[in-house]
Amino acid sequence: MASNSKSWGFDPTDDKDIYVCLFISRNKDNKDVPNFVERRKSFITTKHYTDPNLIIEFFNFVSNGVPNEICRMYYSLNSRNKEVVYKNLLHFLIDEPNFNLCALQSKIASIAAKHECAKTKYWFFDFDIQDIEKVKEFMNDIHNIDNNIVVISRATPNGYAIITNRGFDTKELFKKWTENVTLKKDDLICIRWNEPITDKEVDKVVHSLNTNKISYKNEDGSLKSVYEILKQISDDYNND
Question: What structural domains does the chain harbor?
Answer without folding.
Answer: 2-115+193-239 (no CATH), 122-185 (3.30.70)
